[in-house]
Design goal:
This protein is an all-alpha fold and 478 residues long. It has 19 helices and no strands.
């Protein structure tokens, strides 16, 4: 055996490759530049929140925290009213049980914990959605997610969820976990929707989508998990469960008034158009049923085309539209809508470059009518416009509530601005394009085996004359 340092070095003295890369000046410079870019985007997101956001102060978290403290001290959960407000606890008992441990914290500590876990949930969703795009485009994974996190944390639904201390990002992550499960064909897909439904009722629309798209296992799993969670809460707190499901659930006035500017649902839009506190019921029901049918039909079509992300996004947006109350912090489904539009632009851009590289027309394909460099510009513009709309959120300068102030006090432009987010949601439900084959989720089906093709027998054509036999002494052809 050769002595150390003679002939070869011991294995322990060899420097691993990743350490050599870490010590590389070029790698350090590149990483420092990327970290600097991420830091600059974080600062820009903070400045944007300061300019376009509102004063939040964990307002909703203080209500939840006060309710569970009141409840843990022997009070009736659904009789709690926050000081200086008319608001109380509106979630099912299962949600109250999950929130009960925060009674040991201060309201600010509970809000900070919720903010941390909300950002973690958003980061996990962004990683699931953006890593396939980054791999396809050759972008660094960590930087793609690190850039996207502050960018999306700055838009209206996310900053309000974090600032008010809401749970929308956690529910969003639970539902998107089912998207990942369906994408990979996992048998437990649907549990996230079921748990989210036990915490809040609106995710139940995803079960309807599973049924419409014939994803029977996911529908059964979601229904069963939601019922199990609700039944467990009933066993633990039967009095509160009976009170909620028998009475509180029908007290719609506990949530708020429909014409309030933060309510960007169809009901809120109609209420403000009619300048009344509530929307005309027959008109709202008629339009809601139409948009519900459009959203679920388009979601089922997107599923059949192999784009489960667009299907989930359409269902989430449809739930926002048809719900009687959809506050701006509920509208987190614009996050995957922006990502899907941007991805559509990238795919079209790559396809346009491929067609341009061929240098000739391709039979069966419609050639770009613009310059190849502009292919995908329409979808890119839609993604940027949608992002900027929810970043600026132009509804707040024109906030009114009847009968104190008419919603038409600022004219037609003010009315359009006050309802801009609701209009954008309706347009997305009706026109958000799918990406065929981009996000297939057919794990619940067994693909059919295609038999191998058999070679056809070679037959001589009868109209081709047979070659003449070579004669003796004739020269051979070369």
């Amino acid at each position: 055996m050769p002595a150390p340092g003679v002939g070869s070095q011991p294995r322990l003295t060899r420097i691993p490759r990743f350490i050599r890369d870490w010590r590389s000046p070029q790698w350090d410079r590149r990483t420092l530049v990327r970290v600097g870019i991420v830091a600059a985007i974080c600062y820009a997101a903070w400045v944007t929140e300061q300019n376009f956001g509102r004063w939040y102060d964990f307002f909703d978290m203080k209500i939840y925290h006060g309710a569970v403290v009141w409840w843990s001290g022997g009070g009736e959960l659904y009789e709690f009213i926050a000081p200086d407000t008319t608001l109380g606890f509106t979630y099912p008992p299962f949600a109250a049980l999950l929130m009960l441990p925060m009674a040991a914290l201060t309201p600010s500590a509970a809000g900070l914990f919720n903010m941390f876990f909300g950002l973690v949930a958003l980061g996990m969703v962004l990683a699931a959605l953006l890593i396939p795009v980054a791999d396809r485009c050759g972008w660094p994974r960590w930087m793609t997610v690190a850039v996207a996190l502050p960018l999306f944390a700055a838009i209206e639904p996310v900053r309000e969820t974090l600032g008010f201390g809401q749970v929308n990002l956690l529910l969003f992550a639970l539902i998107m976990a089912d998207l990942v499960a369906l994408r990979r064909g996992w048998r437990w897909a649907g549990i996230g929707v079921g748990i989210a439904m036990a915490i809040k009722l609106t995710p139940a629309l995803f079960i309807v989508y599973f049924l419409v798209s014939k994803q029977w296992r996911a529908a059964l799993t979601a229904t069963a998990s939601g019922l199990v969670a609700t039944a467990a809460a009933w066993v633990i707190v039967p009095h509160e469960s009976a009170l909620y499901w028998g009475n509180v659930i029908f007290q719609t006035e506990r949530v708020g008034v429909a014409d309030m500017t933060p309510n960007q649902s169809l009901a809120g839009l109609l209420s403000r158009l009619y300048d009344t506190a509530t929307a005309p019921s027959p008109l709202w029901i008629a339009f809601a049923l139409v948009l519900l049918a459009v959203g679920l039909t388009r979601a089922a079509a997107a599923h059949s085309e192999g784009d489960e992300l667009i299907a989930f996004t359409l269902v989430g947006l449809t739930a926002n539209v048809v719900s009687p109350i959809s506050w701006t912090h509920h509208l987190v489904w614009v996050v995957p809508a922006v990502i899907a539009l941007a991805d559509q632009a990238l795919r079209r851009r790559a396809a346009g470059r491929g067609l341009a590289a061929r240098g000739r027309s391709t039979p069966g394909l419609r050639e770009p009518i613009w310059f190849p460099a502009l292919v995908g510009a329409r979808h890119a513009g839609a993604a940027i416009g949608l992002y900027l709309l929810f970043l600026i959120s132009p509804i707040w300068p024109y906030e009114h509530q009847s009968p104190a102030v008419s919603h038409y006090a600022d004219g037609l432009f003010g009315m359009l601005a006050e309802n801009s987010l609701a209009i954008a949601l309706i347009v997305l439900v009706a026109a958000l394009p799918s990406r065929p084959g981009a996000e297939p989720a057919f794990g619940g089906t067994t693909p059919q085996r295609v038999p191998a093709a058999r070679p056809l027998p070679v037959t001589r054509r009868t109209d081709t004359p047979a070659p003449a036999p070579a004669t003796a002494g004739a020269p051979a052809e070369h």
